[in-house]
Specification:
The chain is of the alpha/beta class. It is built from 5 helices and 8 strands. It is globular.
């Protein structure tokens, strides 16, 4: 069953079973959520694959920064997105081409795009919109 996770309890299984998180729009600026959220995830045992074309080739969280999701050749359980809502459609093809596909696409706090979400759900990829992975992980005590 594919669904859009709307409440805290519904995200727990995904966060508990995930091992690898691809972070689209990662930042090197330490006070930005696009840096400290994936850093938190890495510190809590997740493998974090950073994605940002402006940072490609650098190393963050012990991983080489990829320029796009298309460069990821291994499984990513979650794609955590730090991109403005209007930019999301440009990433849809890369997400759908991932092999294997992610189980979940997580749109961080303040990011919502219902059309993009609908297309992911139709492709049987679960979605979280407008929630903070760090805050939810902490709230769940994982």
């Amino acid at each position: 069953m594919t669904l859009e996770h709307r409440d805290l309890a519904s995200v727990k299984p995904a966060l508990k079973t995930a091992r690898t998180i691809a972070v689209l729009g990662v930042s090197v600026t330490t006070d930005k959520p696009a840096h400290y959220v994936p850093l938190y995830a890495a510190q809590h045992g997740y493998r974090v694959i950073p994605v940002n074309p402006l940072l490609a080739g650098q190393t963050l969280f012990g991983e080489a920064v990829r320029s796009s999701l298309a460069e990821i050749k291994e499984a990513a359980d979650i794609v955590d997105v730090f991109r403005r809502a209007e930019l999301l459609p440009a990433h849809l093809e890369d997400i759908l081409a991932m092999n294997p596909r992610p189980k979940l696409v997580w749109l961080q706090l303040g990011i919502r795009n219902d059309d993009f979400t609908k297309k992911l759900l139709e492709a049987e990829i679960e979605v979280v919109q407008d929630r903070c992975l760090l805050a939810d992980h902490r709230a769940l005590g994982l």
